[in-house]
Design a protein that fits this description.
single chain, 6-stranded mixed beta sheet, two-stranded antiparallel ribbon, 10 strands, about 40% helix, globular
Amino acid sequence: MADTVAKLVLEWTRKEPELTLQWVKDKEGVFQPVDWKTHYGNVQAFAAGLMSLGVKRGDHIGIISDNMREWMQADHAILCVGAADVPRGSDSTAAEIEYILNHAECGICLAENQVQMEKILSVKKSLPKLKTLIVMDPEFSKSTSRKDGVAILSFDEVKEKGRQHLARHPGCVEEAIALGKPEELVTIIYVNDGHQLLGLAQ
């Protein structure tokens, strides 16, 4: 029986590969089904991509984004490698993001789109640990590979790095999943109580 979220993802992929777990709007606004096999293929590639970037078990990775297909892929991939996600919506202020990424000591952060990327970069001077930004928007057009000392990558670039990593290290993601323990940290959620941001780990 699966005792972690990552193990559950792999279990369902193997048990019900054709089962729809998500509906996603295409460019015409029509909802299209995404099955477990397709989802896990993306998760596996992104997880391996994170490994190629040096992500290790116990690391904290920021996600500044509203709900989107790539958010779920990233979330599951982060858990597969044994890291913890630090999510916050796109309505967060630069000051909130600065506090969260600093407090959680995030070296990598995912941004929903270029707007969120620029918001994060606007406080980069106060984020000494931040080294890499990954933009999830499929329409993101990268103009530079580095800005303000931070590596800028698209979501697809990380998945491509992951596919290359998988070619060299087949089975690496499944090995990482197998190492997972139910007591490991999976997410740090920050809430605003009206006076200050509070981090809730689970």
